[in-house]
Amino acid sequence: MDMILAAMGDAFTWQALLAIVIGTWAGIIIGGLPGLGSVVGLTIFLPFTFGMDVITSMALLIGVYCGSVYGGSITAILINTPGTPQSAATTFDGYPMTQQGRVDEALGWATFASFFGGVLSCVLLIFCAPQLAKFAVNFGSIEVFALVCLAMLCIVGVSKGSTLKGLLCGMMGFFFSMVGSDPITGVDRFTFGQYALSSGLTLIPVVVGVFALSEVFIRFADRDDEAAQIPEAKLRFPTLPQIVHRLVELLRGSFIGSFIGALPGTGAAAAAFISYAAAQKLSPRRANLGKGEPDGIIASESSNNAVTGSSFIPTLALGIPGDVVTAMMMGAMVIHGITPGVRLMTDQAQTVYALFVVLILVNVAMLILSKPSVGLFRYLFKLPAGYIMGGIVMFSFIGAVSVRGNPLDLIVMAVTGILAYALRRGGYPLAPLVIGMVLGPQLESSLRRGLLISRGDFFAFFTHSTIATGLFVLIALFVIWTLWSAFAEWRGKERRGKA
């Protein structure tokens, strides 16, 4: 108890609290600008932490991290342009709600779900970190492959109207993820002799092109339409009865995000898509998903923000960063004298508990700062639509090239933007393309490593471990459920036609 009180004293200093406010608000703004995001935000603020003490520096970086994950939902809802890849699934129901004049409700649910998922993951982190870390170690390549296969099935769910078109776009995204060096042999693939393509296509330029640029093209083409106007948005939090009514959705998304975040090498984008797929099968209002249903926003935002807390489990307990963001956070910890690993909870327990307190405070700050942040975007969107679209294009180009400084990313963004515009005009869903791009590298690398482990015997995957077998059983049930639902819907239409 004395250690927890001492940790709270470290986290409640005025320097740490100021760092939380500055980092969280800056993260929300950076996350809301298309093409930027967590990595860019941390890159900007990391040099400022070198003269700070450990808790203050980590408070600033954690604020930027958590704030940027939430901030991407604002533009995803307002203009169908996710500020970060983690918020791509939020567009499925967030933007339709905006088109229906329910933008205040959509923003309120996104904010509360983000807060709920973030706080719940912090609680799990505090009480279950050692146990979850031990369980996460059981996920090898074969188990991760089964988990990613389960996530890939959500392509079927988001392919409204034509499953064939959705699968085609999903394969297109998977192809994009294969460009570059082979993850096992290092041989170049689909580079067409161009050295610049050997490093592959990164996610951010593709996501920015698919969502941001294609949206600009659509709005420019339909500039005389009333629907092309950017809405004036406020934020209205859900009432207590509404929260209780959707509590199961909040808990399910938060637990999925917490679980996915504890697995090294996954990330918030994968968690959001997996959670959305679960909502499509389990939500009592699943028939409305994709048409402006708050359950879709809850599934995406509660899960991707839950990852921010649980991603520290492998980082702190095992010294294994789960993605680029946590790798940067781990590097900052090492610089400031925190050595992640199995001895951390024993050797620096007070510092670890102080970081847990900081995580909770950051989520509280995010909830408080959400209204002024949305208000800032509201004032920006009062500018003429042409200026707004021009600003989106400018930030898109900055965000695309700032990830790794490769001018090729500008070309990739432009080409995918034109391709996405053509696909949208042809009635093809864009969500499967992004899902394929997000999950493709994990699917391929885990499959290849799994085949090496099983000596080329794919059927050994199904009996490799209890976890793998359980996940493959879930996949089989998912497929059977989907086929049965489609058959039942077809029979219902046939009977109504005869009647």
Largest sheet, described in full? 2 strands, antiparallel
Mean pLDDT: 77
What is the C-alpha radius of gyration, as a whole number of Å?
22 Å
Helix content estimate:
over 70%
The ordered H/E elements are HHHHHHHHHEEHHHHHHHHHHHHH
Brief write-up:
The protein is mostly helical and about 500 residues long. It has 22 helices and two strands. The chain has one domain (about 1-465).
List the helices and strands and how they pair.
Elements: H1 2-11, H2 14-32, H3 38-45, H4 54-79, H5 91-99, H6 103-137, H7 141-152, H8 154-158, H9 163-178, E1 180-181, E2 188-189, H10 203-221, H11 240-245, H12 247-261, H13 268-282, H14 294-310, H15 312-318, H16 324-335, H17 344-347, H18 349-380, H19 385-402, H20 408-425, H21 431-453, H22 466-498
Helix pairs in contact: 1-18, 2-3, 2-4, 2-18, 3-4, 3-16, 4-5, 4-6, 4-14, 4-16, 4-18, 5-6, 5-14, 6-12, 6-14, 6-15, 6-18, 7-13, 7-21, 7-22, 9-21, 10-19, 10-20, 12-13, 12-14, 13-14, 19-20
Keywords: Membrane, Transmembrane, Transmembrane helix
Transmembrane segments: 16-46, 58-79, 106-128, 135-158, 192-213, 255-279, 316-339, 351-369, 381-401, 407-423, 467-488
Pfam families: TctA
Walk me through what this model shows.
With 499 residues, this protein is mainly alpha-helical. The protein has one domain (2-464). The chain has 22 helices and two strands. It has helices at 2-11, 14-32, 38-45, 54-79, 91-99, 103-137, 141-152, 154-158, 163-178, 203-221, 240-245, 247-261, 268-282, 294-310, 312-318, 324-335, 344-347, 349-380, 385-402, 408-425, 431-453, 466-498, and strands at residues 180-181, 188-189. A two-stranded antiparallel sheet has the order 1-2. β1 (180-181) and β2 (188-189) form a beta hairpin. The chain is globular, with a radius of gyration of 22 Å. It starts with a helix and ends with a helix.
